[in-house]
């Protein structure tokens, strides 16, 4: 399939782009997977990938799976690439899921299978053995772990732009994970938005360690280079977690131009990568687009990373803070390319009242807050900052809910018509019947750039002040005895009908064992008072790994309150 002489148009879907490049550059490397060291790398050309995709797609058609949801349960690898693209070509509604035996993350996989009504799962034989018995409570599944022979007469269906491409589940940080229905139009529009914003060219080399079932890894790392006839280079996420230098070595070895990570990824590198001969040999000058998104972006993390790896050729100008979500397929704003990290120093007291006012450089930490610029709004999006209660457009320099219109905005959530009418069909009062997506995020626009201040559902209003949990959690994570990463949660509890402010902070195991707990509480309380002018009512110290998180590492604040119920038994509760 595909015609090397064909000219791509705006009406072509993602598959047309892939087949076009497979015909034009059959021997070009489409995928490079490095499961362990470089000697284990597996490479697939466009010709080989194209052949595998078409064979598997025809097999899926023959199995009667067109227009049906099918689970994709794969460890990181080439198999996921083949089967996901095959689902697109066969008109199958792919549902990417996480392979895990972790009880908390397995609950998410079980919830997805139950919600979609999936009864067929594409997987590998090893994965079936690993997790098959864990899914028995949901009934019988049809497991497909190989591609049988197909008839030469089998044809693939015609794919329309408004047909369903796949179902991407949200992280579920503020509610139960929801299935976002992503169309082929959504996919191709967002691919163009990413390409334009990042300045990506034909033949792009992109990739890294992000999970393939996660929207940032799927849309940004895997589909973007294949959309541009480039090369997708990747490794298992666990390899990065164990030794973060492997990510940088992957970038150097394959001369990766564009690679993304949440803020945690860059922080993980600065904390665990130490001076060594291996580090000295790295050349990161090829890394021109270093996207940072998917969770709150910290200016200090990017500055530390740029300083630590400047000798390896990394430029601070490569940083590309960005914003997006599954409901918009992925990307909304970012850049510009080579713009680096930019931020605003805001008056904390004004922000607590929902107003945007820059603070003086001499202001103390308690008086100011640094908010990172999430980049220029894509030309593919129309953005409005709206009062979430009055549903009217906010005046300039007022924080409101971010509302979006775009061909990238998905068709809605699976099986949730009432929620869809509220979230995907929102209208600004007095401005007609144009529908917007309510993102649930708070922020403002300045000079065409988007600044995100927090989540509407997570905003804490205490004694007439707006408190942004991320800000306080960042201060807690900076404490010397804190486990770091994303190991702090700030939330409210009700005590005798009074709202109180609480925090749970993961502490290094050694510090929990050797340091005075009361002294650590005093230190943390003082840091919050000096850094944000906030006084806690409750502070809980926890061992690493105690906080409830999503599969992408986001805190589930709504589940943190139950931690206080067991705290007295641990001797960790402070009032």
Automatic annotation (TrEMBL):
The protein's matches in InterPro entries, at most eight in alphabetical order, are given as:
AMP-bd_C_sf, AMP-binding_CS, AMP-dep_synth/lig_dom, ANL_N_sf, FAAL/FAAC
Q: Could you tell me the keywords of this UniProt record?
A: Ligase, Plasmid
Which residue ranges traverse the bilayer? none
State any GO BP term from the record: Actinobacterium-type cell wall biogenesis
Q: Listed GO cellular component terms?
A: plasma membrane
Q: What is the superkingdom listed in this entry's lineage? A: Bacteria
Q: Which residues form the AMP-dependent synthetase/ligase domain?
A: 22-414
Q: Name one Pfam family in it.
A: AMP-binding
In the record, what terms sit under GO molecular function?
adenylyltransferase activity; ligase activity
Please report which protein family the annotation says this sequence is part of.
Belongs to the ATP-dependent AMP-binding enzyme family.
What protein am I looking at?
AMP-dependent synthetase/ligase domain-containing protein
This protein's species is Photobacterium angustum
